[in-house]
Design brief:
Alpha-Beta Plaits, alpha+beta, 49% helix, single chain, 3-hydroxy-3-methylglutaryl-coenzyme A Reductase, Chain A, domain 2, 17 helices, binds (R)-mevalonate, four-stranded antiparallel beta sheet
Length: 446
Amino acid sequence: MSKMQNSGSGSKSISGFSKLSKRGKIKWIVENFFRDPETVMHELTSYWHKNEDQQKLLDGFSENTITNFPMPFSVAPNLMINGKIYVAPMVIEESSVVAAASAGAKFWMDRGGIRAKILGTEKLGQIHFLWNGEEEFLRSNLHQIKVKMLLDAKEIISNMDKRGGGVRDFKLITNQTIPHYYQILVSFETCDSMGANFINSCLESFAQSLELFCSSNDVSLQSGYEVEILMSILSNYTPECLVRVELSCPISELGEFPEGMSAREFAERFYQAIQIAKFDTHRAVTHNKGIFNGIDAVVLATANDFRAVEACGHAYAARDGQYRSLSDCSLEGDQFLFFMEIPLALGTVGGLTALHPIAKRSLELLGNPTAQELMMIAASVGLVQNFSAIRSLVTTGIQQGHMKMHLTNILNQFQATEQQKSKAEEHFKTHKVSVQSVRQFLNSTQ
Ligand code: MEV
């Protein structure tokens, strides 16, 4: 088969790919999926870190790595939380997000900043199992089972215990959807770590203890049944690992708005936008996506698990059965209040936080915060981000800001010179940005 026929088809299979050397992997990829293997090989390897040890470290974060995927690392200054000013690190590829976060942070710094409070730090894990015996047996022995679980897992727990964390509670959950199904829901305090490894290790040990307890001679004599463990895993739904952030100021201090819109009119339009996102799912998803534009960027910059954070946040947004806006707003008299309560299971020790070279710097930039402080920072970036987005939506519309940033990308795509760029920026203040219009403008100014 010729290379042309293969290129980009994606239909080739291979066994033992993971055993190939890194160069071998790239070679197979470029030769089978690209029209110009040599150029692509050169391009992919050009993103390798110049320091071999650093590259090995990055490769170790995943499997089958062939190169690195660069993303912009930005900062949003002037983020004032409980009187302290931070510079927030943000890793995001979408134009306007950092500009919106920075503008929102500055706007609110001038109005007293963000107030933030931790409402809880509880993390959860589950042991799912089948049990043919009486529910009553499990209920009446739960305390003894718990004692055995904790004793057997003593070594796993001891370090976390010393740091002030550990296992907090055990609950037996029943659900008749599956015959004989039970669950033990365990709650944990994991201090400054996100705690996934700790929780999973505990749960697997607890599951074994449960099996042993129920198959021990004494017990099987009493009950005659054994436990079948289905799975043991943390839950990324952590509604009690919660942070509250809020912004407020007199309506009259909300500033000036285009086309003669008064501060009161703005506040009312803003309030209505939030109300829509509270009952309309289509709007709520986009609204919350805007919040996660800010949160995810901080979560990524600090090498935390953005998939866990998103999954949890969206489930929380639907906690009463209807998917709603995560943020809320109230107007009382002359007072504008914008607030949000959001679950965020983050860590500042463990995982990749200290291993990833830039994540380590992100945390240093934030003054090496505790996990609770990082929860407040990420939620604050989400809230100011959301404020800026809604402010644009109910005044000028979002495209004005977006297109300005988009213009930079289009100009870079056309490899415009610095002189052409500044002329274009002037011209497009009053003209509509599109790929076509930028191309025409560049051709006419050559
Ligand atoms: C774009 O990434 C985010 C927004 O759509 C959020 C929103 O509509 O609230 C602007």
